[in-house]
Amino acid sequence: MQKTKFTFITILLFVAGVASAQVVSPVEIQDPDMRALQQNSMSQLQVAAQHIAAHHFDYPFYFSRKLDVDQKQQQRIDQHSIRFERFNGATVLAISGNYYGAYSTQKFSDGLRARQTFLEVVLPILKAVVPAVQANPVVQGYAVEVSHHVLGRTMGMPMERAENLMVYVPQSAAAKLVAAHDKLTQQAALLDSKVFLNANPMDLWLTDDEQPRAHDVVVPAPVAPIMVASITPLPSAPSAIEPVGSKSNLLASRAPEPVRPDPKPAAMPSPPLPAPSLRDTSPQALAVLQSSIQGVSNHMIKELEPQAQFVTYAPPAFVAFRHQAYLELSLSTTLAEPTGTSRYKLAALAFDDHLSPLLRKVLSYFPGDQSFDGISFSTTVHTPAKQGAAAINPLSVEFFFPLASLRCYESYDCTGQQILDAGTVLINGERVGLALQSAEGVGRP
Is residue 308 part of a domain? Predict the structure, then answer.
């Protein structure tokens, strides 16, 4: 009896220790409002973390602010991940981690992979954290990002890559989701949510009959190192990878999915760009980068100011975006477009008329290999208001361009549309696809 009591206490202490390791310390949070919220909510977050630690996932799951990390490395690095952040202007409880299960591309479509990770990882996490903090009126939603693995074949060779699922659920929808007792009710709650697979928006469906059996087609992810957005050959083909048409292929018996047309106009193919590597984007690492380019940055600001229209109170600074380090340049763009012009046309004109003439000039200050991943042009677009009309709120547009694509543009091997496609465009904080000719109405009567 004494031994049983001792074992039970040991288990409790272990779970409590794991839970504390999952919650980010308030001192690590830069935003003062989020830091205060984290400090005031520590007890609730630790209770939620205890519930998550006690949950049995089908395959190993680790909390981490770095995604797509090799499992052995993951066991050695920081596993604090539960923290408050801002997402599209909303205060959210953010949680991220790595799930070491892998899906066969021959048996799992994009939607099925997203569904399976949602049901196996995201939903149990939400059921643990939502009851703990939903009474706090400051919390407006939940953002859960999980990296899993995908197994497939390229030119007949077995290959593996990482894939990231991100789910944002507003507070009201989250309460309905975790209280739901059937897939139909869960699906209704998800209609108010946002789902991204590798940063691409998608619809997540739970109510059809295509849900696979996890033990048939999900295998533990190998321990071989995986870099962000890269693929590496496996030492041998896992049993879950089978040729199309085999009896165990769950997708072979159903009709093929409809092919969706490409919404963007036809363009010449972009030259292949190297896959990004993992980057330390901690505040300390970004501060070191900032110090290393400060002299060059000051020189650039002085020489390019008349054309660039830099924002004087927001000097160039490094920011973390999608686990990469970007040098952010804050600009102001003035266009002569009238009131009511489409935001997409304004963003396209801001790029064509203001940014594209700057790109090669900015790059000339950062030749060769650099210790950062890209440059972000963050501009506020101003348009004139009609006489006597109220002032128009300016439009915020952010362009994140990887250095590799900028070098391609610099050497005249890529068009402006191609670097837009290779990068990320945000309009008022929302990611958009930007087709220059369509947005500007080129060729329309």
Answer: yes
Q: Which residues contact 112 (CB under 8 A, 6 or more apart)?
A: 103, 210, 211, 212
Quick check: 174 pLDDT over 90? yes
Q: Looking at the structure, do residues 101 and 159 belong to the same domain, yes or no?
A: yes
213 and 80, same structural domain? yes
Q: Are residue 125 and residue 61 in the same domain, yes or no?
A: yes
108-147 residue pLDDT tens: 888 999 999 999 999 999 999 999 999 999 999 999 999 9
CA dist 298 and 377 (Å) reads 16
Quote the pTM value: 0.48
In this structure, the answer to whether residues 292 and 410 fall within a common structural domain is: yes
Tokens of 313: 């109170």
Tell me if 34 is assigned to some domain: yes
Domain count, the chain: 2
In-domain check, residue 300: yes
Same domain, 344 and 214: no
342 within a domain of the structure (yes/no):
yes
Is residue 151 domain-shared with residue 26, that is, in the same domain? yes
The string of pLDDT tens digits covering residues 389-445 is 444 567 899 999 999 999 999 989 888 898 998 899 998 888 888 888 877 765 433
Say what the pLDDT of residue 277 is. 53
Q: How far apart are CA 227 and CA 367, in angstroms?
A: 25
Q: Could you tell me the residue range of the domain that residue 52 belongs to? A: 15-233
Picking from 197, 218, 233, the residue at the C-terminal end of a domain is: 233
The single residue listed with the structure tokens 């794991």 is 18
Q: What is the three-state SS of the chain? A: CHHHHHHHHHHHHHHHHHHHHHECCHHHCCCHHHHHHHHHCHHHHHHHHHHHHHCCCCCCEEECCCCCCCHHHHCCCCCCCEEEEEECCEEEEEEEEEEEEEEECCCCCHHHHHHHHHHHHHHHHHHHHHHHHCCCCCCCEEEEEEEEEEEEEECCEEEEEEEEEEEEEEHHHHHHHHHCCCHHHHHHHHCCCEEEECCEEECCCCCCCCCCCHHHHEEECCCCCCCCCCEEECCCCCCCCCCCCCCCCCCCCCCCCCCCCCCCCCCCCCCCCCCCCCCCCCHHHHHHHHHHHHHHHHHHHHHHHHHHCECCCCCCEEEEECCEEEEEEEEEEECCCCCCCCHHHHHHHHHHHHHHHHHHHHHCCCCCCCCCCEEEEEEEEECCCCCCCCCCCCEEEEEEEEHHHHHHHHCCCCCHHHHHHHCEEEECCEEECCCHHHHHCCCCC
Domain shared by 228 and 294, yes or no: no
